[in-house]
Amino acid sequence: MKLNMYRWQATNRFGQKQRGVLVAEDENQAKRILFSRQLQNIRLQRNWQFSYAPKNAEICDLLQQLATLLEASVTLKNSLQILLSNCTNIPLYQWLQHLLSDLESGLAFSQALNRQPKFLTHQERQLIRVSEMTGQLAKVCRQIALSKQQSLALQRKIQKILLYPMMILTISLILTALLLIFIVPQFAEMYGGETTQLPLFTRILLYLSQGLQQYFMPFCVLLTAIALFLKRRLQHSLRLNRQKNKLIAATPVLGQIVALSRLIRFCRSLHLMLHAGVPLNQALQSFLPTDKPNAAIHHDVALTQEVQYILQGIQRGFTFSACVGVTLFPMQAQQMIQVGEQAGKLPLMLQHIADNYQRQLDHKIDLLSQMLEPLLMLIISGIIGLIMLGMYLPIFNMGSLIQ
Predict the structure, then answer these.
(1) Do residues 63 and 141 lie in contact, with contact meaning Cβ atoms separated by under 8 Å?
(2) Pick from 62, 133, 141, 159: most CB atoms within 10 A?
(3) What count of other Cβ atoms lies within 10 Å of the Cβ of residue 151?
(4) Transmembrane residues, as ranges (predicted)?
């Protein structure tokens, strides 16, 4: 079924102007929907924007709204119908349609989600299955939405930090290319065609300038092809993903940020599952990739290996606290896990660990953002300074050139 997005304007029964966006099969269905809302003087305009996968923020909002409706004693089916009527993302609209269709055919909500697993993880679907059995679906939906919001906030912080250096490095590369293409050739004309007596560094810059002028477009095409090839390989090569993770882990500060975010994500997810009544073994199994092709590539390789070690230890009769290693849990966190396990309050201790290390992570992110600005300024000024130094070296050595 092909769906379209429409922008509409209308007036309500009191003559007040209304406007919005809705999803429908065609204009006739869109008008019927608006007439059912008792709107008049309807004007429709087809929105030709391409459909896109819903963002994490949209999934969070949908789960928050679902939890609110369920807490207000609205039935699950009616809640999904309300969400469907307000949905403006075509893939998300189709997902809700399929869920409603499965519910009407007699399937449970968790079964419908397993048939439509697009926008919720395996862990989240397990949580919903358990919540259906315990009658806490609204509470669990709220917890899942909160967990997604926390992960999204962390992701945005890291993206914000990485965006700035990427922009600065891009600008520095553009400036370097402009200097080599337009400025360096003027120095080459000033020094004449004879380059054998020029300093080595100056000759290297002149050769680079000539190469860029002659092969600029092929060089850009080659760089683009290499970038696309690496991106493609990262989507299909487990080995390359492991090498990427090792490189990130060895990077100062950034490696610590990734390790802390992994720990926080693991603790919060495990806390949610244990608090909802999921057995420990089953909760840990949910962190492992499924049997789908390339599923392992899209998982955190370091986390997957650590969870496998923990499961092997538990199967041999050891406690959870005895099986965790420093790859995932620092020594302080291991001690807290041991205390929580002995006291029978492991979920509460996992939440405490996540909150404690979240504060450390925020400090690391602030530290990295403060370090990057002067470091990048130094890189840019260094590149430009080296190019200008290379061009003026023959002038400094003018005495030797005259001889």
Answers:
(1) yes
(2) 141
(3) 17
(4) 161-184, 204-230, 375-395
